[in-house]
C-alpha cells in the first residue's frame, strides 16, 4: 500500500523541471533548484545562460508561457505590488488584476506544481510603508484561493490550490532558498536579537498607552506571510487560455 509520502514523491518526480520567478528583476530566484529557470518582469531583460527572461506587466498581461508548463512558481516581494482593482481599457468597467494573476499562476503550473510566495502582510507596518504596496495580504487571504470552493470563485477565480503552508516568516526568509528534498522546506532565518533597552522602552511605552486608555498596536514580529500552495488540477486536463482585460 502506498503512503502519502510515496504519493508526494511520485507527483514531485513527474513535475516539469522548470521554475518561473515573478517580478524577477535581473536576478530570478530558483527556490526549488530546478534545472531550467525562467523569469518575468515588467522591464525587458536579455536572456542569459540558463535563464529565460520575458517581459510582461502582470497587472494587465497574462503570464507569457503555455498552460501546465512549470513545476513551480515563486513570488518574492511581488504580490503586494499587484492592484486589486483596475478600470477596463474602455473605461466602462473594472477588473481584478490580483484575482487574474492567481488564475494565471494556477494555469501555468502543472498538476501538483507549487507556488512559493513571500509577502509583507497586515498588520505589520512593512505592509504599508512602501507607497507602491497596493495589495494588502493577511493571514486569511489564502482562503480566497485554496480548497474545493475558494471564496474568490465569485470574482472569477477558476483555479484551485491546496495550502501546504501558510505562516508568518522573517524578512530574511525572502532571501533564502529552499533545499531540494522530498518535501521542500525553506531555511528559517533567525530573527535579529532585540536589544534589551529597546524591549524595555517598548514595554514602558505600551504601559503608558494602556493607562491612558489608548489601544496598543499589535503586529506580528515576523512581517511576511509565507505561502506554499499546490496546484490542484486533473492530470492531463486542458487548462483554459489566459483571460484578457
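^ C-alpha cells above, recovered residues below v
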Amino acid at each position: 500500500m502506498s503512503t502519502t509520502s510515496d504519493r508526494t514523491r511520485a507527483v514531485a518526480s513527474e513535475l516539469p523541471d522548470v521554475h518561473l520567478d515573478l517580478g524577477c528583476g535581473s536576478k530570478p530566484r530558483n527556490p526549488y533548484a530546478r534545472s531550467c529557470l525562467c523569469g518575468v518582469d515588467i522591464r525587458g531583460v536579455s536572456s542569459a545562460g540558463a535563464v529565460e527572461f520575458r517581459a510582461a506587466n502582470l497587472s494587465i498581461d497574462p503570464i507569457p508561457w503555455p498552460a501546465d508548463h512549470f513545476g513551480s512558481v515563486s513570488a518574492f516581494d511581488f504580490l503586494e505590488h499587484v492592484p486589486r482593482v483596475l478600470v477596463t481599457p474602455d473605461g466602462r468597467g473594472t477588473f481584478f488584476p490580483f484575482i487574474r494573476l492567481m488564475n494565471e499562476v494556477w494555469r501555468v503550473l502543472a498538476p501538483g506544481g507549487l507556488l512559493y510566495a513571500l509577502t509583507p502582510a497586515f498588520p505589520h507596518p512593512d505592509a504599508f510603508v512602501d507607497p507602491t504596496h497596493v495589495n494588502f495580504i493577511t493571514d486569511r487571504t489564502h482562503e480566497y484561493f485554496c480548497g474545493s470552493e475558494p471564496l474568490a470563485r465569485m470574482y472569477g477565480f477558476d483555479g484551485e490550490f491546496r495550502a501546504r503552508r501558510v505562516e508568518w516568516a522573517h524578512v530574511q526568509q525572502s532571501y533564502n532558498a529552499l533545499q531540494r528534498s522530498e518535501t521542500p522546506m525553506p531555511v528559517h532565518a533567525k530573527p535579529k536579537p532585540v536589544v534589551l533597552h529597546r524591549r524595555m522602552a517598548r514595554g514602558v511605552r505600551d504601559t503608558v498607552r494602556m493607562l491612558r486608555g489608548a489601544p496598543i498596536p499589535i503586529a506580528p514580529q515576523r512581517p511576511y506571510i509565507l505561502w506554499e500552495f499546490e496546484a490542484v488540477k486533473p492530470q492531463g486536463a486542458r487548462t483554459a487560455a489566459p483571460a484578457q482585460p
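The helical segments are 4-14, 97-108, 196-211.
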